[in-house]
Design a protein that fits this description.
Length: 265
């Protein structure tokens, strides 16, 4: 039997709601795995620098809902001192929660040299804890898989790979996942399954099945490329203000059902 990917719900889909609301909605949709968002200034469901008591409460809630965390979204611009510190705190969360994949981002506010130096240092700290870093398709440094491949090649650490986002590649890079993904499928640590409407630069990320991303083809590419890592469902709607909680829950359930029909849950 082929190994099955862990199919997770991303708490970032519940951007304006509490962690408990996110976890309850994700579990209610049918997911058994979860990506926890810990992004300062955007969706910090799990507080960076969380206390032992806070972490114990999160563990209890996960156990109550039969959810297993598979990744932490810990995006920050590690080219800056602040961003690097936040990334180290996100690594601490991974260690405390037994998570082996941390998603991060490529940024150069502090300069490209600082980004690569700090990312190498972050990778070594992650490697000492057996954690893999996954640089997301996003921004102007990694708008496509091919661009992200260049970034991870320059970082040149064995535990640094790509978090492929099936919609961001269109939003930032203006190319379709089915055209970009085959080149980089062997260098992935994690995938965001996210649908898309509209063109480059248009923020419109509906439930899976409500957009134009060719998920059957994407999943075929992942299978044929031997990818067995986590698949995390992210729905970001039209951005802020976020839809009502019932609509977010409906979108996550519809996404789970669509993936079930495609044979991946």
């Amino acid at each position: 039997m082929e190994p099955r990917n862990q199919v997770a719900g991303n708490t970032n889909s519940y951007h304006s709601y509490s962690l408990n609301e996110a976890l309850e909605g994700i579990a209610g949709a049918g997911f058994r795995y979860v990506e926890l968002s810990a992004v300062r200034g955007w969706t910090e469901h799990v507080p960076l620098g969380a206390s032992a008591a806070e972490l114990d409460g999160i563990k209890r809630k996960l156990a109550e809902l039969n959810l297993t965390p598979v990744s932490v979204g810990g995006h920050s611009d590690v080219s800056t001192d602040e961003g690097f510190t936040l990334a180290l705190q996100a690594l601490d969360l991974c260690s405390a929660l037994g998570i082996k994949v941390m998603i991060t981002a490529a940024g150069r506010e502090g300069g490209e040299d600082a980004f690569f130096a700090n990312m190498r240092q972050l990778a070594k700290s992650a490697g000492a804890r057996s954690i893999e870093l996954a640089i997301e398709i996003a921004g102007d440094m990694a708008p496509t898989g091919i661009a992200a491949l260049d970034v991870i090649s320059r970082v040149d650490q064995p535990n640094v790979a790509i978090n492929y986002d099936t919609a961001n590649v269109e939003y930032y890079g203006g190319v379709k996942a089915v055209d970009d993904l085959p080149t980089v499928v062997g260098r992935l640590a994690h995938v965001h399954l996210k649908d898309k409407l509209g063109g480059k630069g248009e923020w419109d990320f509906p439930a899976i099945g409500d957009g134009h991303v060719d998920f059957p083809a994407v999943l075929d590419i992942l299978r044929s490329g031997g990818f067995t890592g986590p698949l995390s469902v992210e729905v970001e709607f039209l951005g802020e203000p976020w839809p009502a909680l019932d609509e977010v829950n409906r979108a996550m359930k519809a996404s789970f059902d669509q993936l079930t029909a495609l044979g991946v849950t």
